[in-house]
Amino acid sequence: MKAKNIDSKINVKRGIWRKIAGRLTFLGNVYSKVPFYLVNENTMDRISPPEKTFDEECLRKILKNNTEEKEKYHHEEEEGIKYLEKIWERIMECSKKVYVKLGVYLKNGVSFLNIKESSIFICPERIYNKNSPEIIFQNVAIHELVHAYINREYKNDYEKIIEESLANAIAFLHFNDEREDIIEFIKEQPVEYKGCYYWLGYNDDEFFNLLYYILSSWKRNKFLNLLRGYIYYRYEWPFRRWPFYFFPFRTYSFKMMEEVYENFRKTKDITSFLKLISIDILKEAI
Question: Per CATH, is 1-52+99-151 categorized as 3.30.40.10?
Answer without folding.
Answer: no
